[in-house]
Structures are given as structure tokens and as C-alpha cells.
Amino acid sequence: MFMGEWQHTIDAKGRLIIPARFREQLGERFVVTRGLDHCLFVYPIEEWAILEEKLKSLPLTQGDARRFVRFLFSGASECELDKQGRINIPNNLREYACLDRDAVVIGVSNRVEIWAHELWQTYVEEASASYEEIAEKIVDLGI
Q1: pLDDT digits (tens, 9 = 90+) for 28-80
Q2: The domain 2-116 is classified under which CATH number: 3.40.50.720, 3.40.1550.20, 3.40.1190.20, 1.20.120.140?
């Protein structure tokens, strides 16, 4: 399971350090793609295969399903870590996620997300304001 939050810097060549505690779980090869809310999703190959199977079951006749699958797969890139634990994020994905220099890498259960620092700060501020209300709507936490 991926969890936690780390701040890192993207270098001039588009390389980003992946937190050490995520590297083993991601494996030698993994997939980076466009995520929701203008972040990037990073999936271990096994999780990507599960997601792919679910998406294959979507009806081809539904326009929204076709658009979502196209968007997700056309932005997907298989990545590997270099010896320093970095990945090279393709330019099209950096542009999509507004990644320039400062990035936040977070663990979200079965995936990792990469956010531009400013977008993450804005997201956290907005989500914090309604965190309890959202929790009440979607799940009984039993706390």
C-alpha cells in the first residue's frame, strides 16, 4: 500500500526522485499516466493490468467511456528508475500536470500521485474545508 507525502524537485532534464519507500512497491517497471485533477498517476505493472481489465469492460458504445480510456492510455508511459531512484517524466505529462520545478509525491493506496506543488497546496486547502462533510457523504468511518 502506498501512503505518505514527500516534496521533491524536478531537475532541468525532467527527472524526479521517487521516495525510497515507494521504489520497491513500484518494481523495476511501472506506468505513469495522466491522472485526475491535473496530477499524474503512477501504477505498478500489476495494478495497471487490473485497471486495464476494468477499462476493457466499459461499453465501447458510450462516448464518455471511449474518451476516458483514450485520455488515460494515450498519456501512459512505461518508466524505470535510474540508479539514483529518479524517473524521467515525459514532457507531455509534465505539461499536463503543470510540473515545472517543485513537486509533491503522495501515496494513495494502490497508486502514487505526482502533483505540482502549487496545485497540491490549492487542492489540500479546498479539500480541507469540506473534509468532514465529504467523509459523511461517502463512507461511515466508524470513528
Answers
A1: 899 999 999 999 999 999 999 999 999 999 998 999 999 999 999 999 999 99
A2: 3.40.1550.20
**SS (HEC) of the chain:** CEEEEEEEECCCCCEEECCHHHHHHHCCEEEEEECCCCCEEEEEHHHHHHHHHHHHCCCCCCHHHHHHHHHHHHCCEEEECCCCCEEECCHHHHHHCCCCCEEEEEEEECEEEEEEHHHHHHHHHHHHHCHHHHHHHHCCCCC
Ranges of each domain in the chain: 2-116
pTM (two decimals): 0.92
